[in-house]
């Protein structure tokens, strides 16, 4: 198994066609800049971008997300960073599965910057409720 210093910090961006109407704040470019800055400020190294541009958050059959899962299965990733929970997904049950079961079982930390979610912190029990907007 790779040491944590050599594992990937996954920076995940998603923008659906519906989100396009939200303007620049939700654009892929803006998400990339935000995630790269956050990784740099927090000394997260070995970053890799996973991008799903034009894919709905209601499905997890997205090429960038599937590549992310494949890399997790290979033991390559120790941390996933997203702009917010909705970038990971908008299906409450499936998103909850990844946050509560899949990521912890694979020892993957998850951070959603704008929602102040960090799975390494205690008292994150209400995280799933933040997805309901």
TrEMBL record:
PROSITE patterns: RECOMBINASES_3
SMART domains assigned to the protein according to its UniProt record, in alphabetical order: Resolvase
Resolvase/invertase-type recombinase catalytic domain residues: 8-133
Family matches, as InterPro entries: Resolv_N, Resolvase-like_N_sf, SSR_resolvase
GO MF terms, alphabetically ordered: DNA binding; DNA strand exchange activity
Pfam families named among the record's database cross-references: Resolvase
SUPFAM superfamilies: Resolvase-like (SSF53041)
Name assigned to this protein: Resolvase
């Amino acid at each position: 198994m790779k040491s944590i210093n050599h594992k990937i910090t996954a920076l995940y961006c998603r923008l659906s066609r519906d989100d396009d109407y939200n303007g620049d704040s939700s654009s892929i470019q803006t998400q990339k800049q935000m995630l790269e800055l956050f990784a740099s400020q927090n000394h997260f190294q070995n970053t890799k971008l996973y991008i799903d541009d034009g894919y709905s958050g209601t499905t997890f059959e997205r090429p960038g997300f599937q590549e992310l899962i494949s890399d997790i299965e290979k033991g390559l990733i120790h941390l996933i960073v997203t702009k917010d929970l909705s970038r990971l997904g908008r299906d409450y049950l499936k998103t909850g599965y990844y946050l509560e079961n899949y990521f912890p079982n694979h020892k993957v930390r998850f951070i959603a910057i704008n929602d102040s979610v960090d799975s390494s912190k205690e008292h994150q029990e209400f995280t799933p409720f933040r997805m309901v907007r």
